[in-house]
Amino acid sequence: MDQDSQLLGGRYHLLEQVGLGGMARVYHARDQNLQRDVAIKILREDWIDQASFRSNFLHEARAAANLSHPNIVTIFDFGHEEDRLYIVMEYVQGTDLKTLIRRRKRFEIQESVALMIKICQGVGYAHRAGLIHCDLKPQNILITPDGSAKITDFGIARALAAVNPDEHSEVVWGSPLYFSPEQARGEAPSPASDVYSLGVILYEMLTGEPLFNAQDSTTLAEMHSLTPAPSPRRFNPDIPVAIEQIILKVLSKEPSARYRTADQLGRILQTLQETPIQDPGVEGGIPVDIMAEAHGSETMAVDAPASAEVDWLAVGLGLAAFLALGGLLPLWLWVCLLYPSCPINAS
After folding, report:
1. Does 146 qualify as catalytic in the annotation?
2. Is residue 187 part of a domain?
3. pLDDT tens profile 160-212
4. Strands, DSSP E only, in the chain?
5. Among residues 241, 273, 305, which one ends one of the domains?
6. Which is catalytic among the residues 31, 135, 194, 263?
7. Is the distance from CB of 192 to CB of 258 less than 8 angstroms?
8. What is the CATH number of the domain that holds 73?
């Protein structure tokens, strides 16, 4: 790279390439004006002339620029200079989750749950902001040295308001190893689609194995759509049954069978984290039904107030007991008072 090409927009000095994807290169750079390190994503030269890729690139910048959350990479700037289109982002020290999985094979149970809670917090915030990520995978999750998680790459994110439930696309966007069954079929995504992808990521963190593996994307799409998820405990017997139940729920083929949003999944995992995990072979593990949180509502269940209606059965039983204990005297007195000639009335 020559000296002139190392400066973007008259202010961003490119230091080194730190990532390479199908659409873009990522550089560690220095903002000369604000004197801070940044990451710059530059659309690859072979895509710059294609309008659809330029549009997706701009879409990513706009989608993520409105999100401000500790677990989402912050977007600072967007620029176009000659044959270079670029996004300026927060520079995150650390590495991506996929690299860590390859390096470590599998994560400890508690560490996996704690990390996934943080990821759910970021994705859940995007869901509440009306955005579906649509491309969640370990490569798009950056892990800092202190164990924090940062979600990036909103290149194919969809606004909830713009999703037509009946839509169908012949072109499937996303990563075949991690996308949901409905995405694999070209159907409309939803926040539950992101929840499925989070389940695939958690599965891989705990087992060291991808959920499905195949040589081509078509076969992978079919497996996500049709093949039941194998038990994660088959690869890692140390996984508690409670966690396996959560994973298999979010890997359901039908979106309605999963948790509705990442927030819901995060709450379930938070409950699990706050409860001592039992022996892996013992069912239960948490004092609440992990399947109980309703798919269709974000509200928490509360006990219904006691009914104010009269329990006539109880009244009848009480009267019968009273008659049995007091004999017929009370009844005689009541009947007597109904007639004027009653001695009691006469007195």
Report:
1. no
2. yes
3. 887 887 777 766 667 899 999 999 998 989 999 999 999 999 999 999 999 99
4. 7-8, 12-20, 24-31, 36-43, 75-81, 84-90, 95-96, 131-132, 141-143, 149-151, 158-159
5. 273
6. 135
7. yes
8. 3.30.200.20
